């Protein structure tokens, strides 16, 4: 039976460091968009992440059974689509808004099928958040960017469901490594056809390695470590802080300003997510979508 790493961080600091790491990675990604575009940046991130995980985990692909492939293939495709759509959103709207809208995916999954009146309150609160973000009066928020973020959130919900099915037939590290490899399939064709990957230099590869480390390898490692000892409900509540962390990171690292209404929208959706986690019977462990 596997044991926890000797120098493992306590669970709560591990989750918080994971959140900070992902937002730092998003800032790196946004800096690569002018040169590589969303498709090229996603291809670089997922490709390098897959290489690192394959070297570290060394999954025995030839030994996987048919039932395991049936589980991990859609899981990996959902992972790739989710990341690509999120980067398409991030290229058009501020980081805080992209993460906030994407978070509606796991929130909707947590509320799906619920008949509790309190969960209806969380749904209304999330709806109010969307209303505050929506460009009703030419607020400058890109409508297509919002659509990409919402689509990424839908893929995130699918990814969570498929991830649970995959975890039932594969060890977590193997599932993530093989899933990341398969995640290149829906993304790499767009990255290659854009032609922007031809602009890769040693400097860009170094930035891509940092992106893969901060956005994929480190967060997945920290979150899996935390889930060994932390209840799923506690984990999900901490993850509900991610839209706020994203908004603050966008402000500090990228100089992105949100209006008062947009900050209120972030707050509404964070409260809705945390509240849904507390009141639903089986909270979903919403691992990082972006």
List the helices and strands and how they pair.
Blueprint: H1 11-57, H2 66-90, H3 95-102, H4 104-111, H5 117-133, H6 143-167, H7 172-183, H8 188-194, H9 202-227, H10 232-239, H11 242-254, H12 260-279
Helix pairs in contact: 1-2, 1-7, 1-8, 1-9, 1-11, 2-6, 2-7, 3-6, 3-11, 4-6, 4-12, 5-12, 10-12, 11-12
**From the helix content, strand content and strand pairing, which structural class follows?**
mainly alpha
Biggest sheet character = none
Strand content: under 5%
Radius of gyration: 18 Å
Percent helix range: over 70%
- The span between the termini is 31 Å
Number of helices: 12
The strand count comes to: 0
Number of domains: 1
What form results from the Cα inertia axes?
Answer: globular
> What do the pLDDT scores average to?
83
SSE run: HHHHHHHHHHHH
Q: Spans of 5+ residues with little confidence (pLDDT < 50)?
A: 1-5
Would you write up a description of this structure?
Belongs to the EamA transporter family. The chain is mainly alpha-helical. It has one domain. 74% of the residues lie in helices and 0% in strands. The longest helix is centred in the N-terminal third of the chain and has 47 residues. The N terminus is likely disordered.
Question: What's the gist of this structure?
Answer:
With 290 residues, this protein is mainly alpha-helical.
């Amino acid at each position: 039976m596997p044991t926890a790493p000797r120098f493992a961080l306590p669970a709560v600091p591990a989750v918080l460091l994971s959140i900070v790491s992902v937002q730092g990675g998003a800032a790196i990604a946004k800096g690569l968009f002018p040169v590589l575009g969303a498709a090229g940046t996603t291809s670089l991130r997922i490709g390098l992440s897959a290489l690192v995980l394959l070297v570290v985990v060394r999954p025995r692909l030839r030994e996987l059974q048919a039932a395991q492939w049936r589980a991990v293939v859609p899981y990996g495709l959902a992972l790739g689509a989710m990341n690509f759509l999120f980067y398409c959103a991030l290229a058009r709207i501020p980081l805080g808004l992209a993460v906030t809208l994407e978070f509606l995916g796991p929130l909707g999954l947590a509320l799906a099928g619920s008949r509790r009146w309190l969960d209806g309150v969380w749904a209304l609160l999330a709806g109010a958040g969307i209303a505050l973000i929506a460009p009703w009066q030419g607020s400058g928020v890109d409508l297509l960017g919002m659509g990409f973020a919402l689509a990424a959130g839908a893929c995130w919900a699918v990814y969570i469901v498929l991830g649970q099915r995959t975890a039932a037939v594969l060890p977590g590290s193997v599932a993530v490594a093989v899933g990341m490899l398969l995640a290149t399939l829906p993304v790499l064709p767009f990255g290659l056809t854009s032609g922007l990957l031809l602009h890769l230099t040693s400097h860009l590869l170094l930035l891509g390695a940092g992106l893969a480390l901060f956005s994929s390898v480190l967060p997945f490692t920290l979150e899996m470590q935390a889930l060994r000892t932390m209840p799923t409900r506690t984990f999900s509540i901490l993850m509900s802080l991610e839209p706020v962390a994203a908004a603050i990171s966008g402000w500090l690292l990228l100089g992105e300003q949100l209006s008062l209404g947009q900050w209120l929208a972030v707050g509404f959706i964070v409260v809705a997510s945390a509240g849904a986690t507390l009141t639903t019977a089986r909270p979903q462990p919403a691992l990082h979508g972006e």
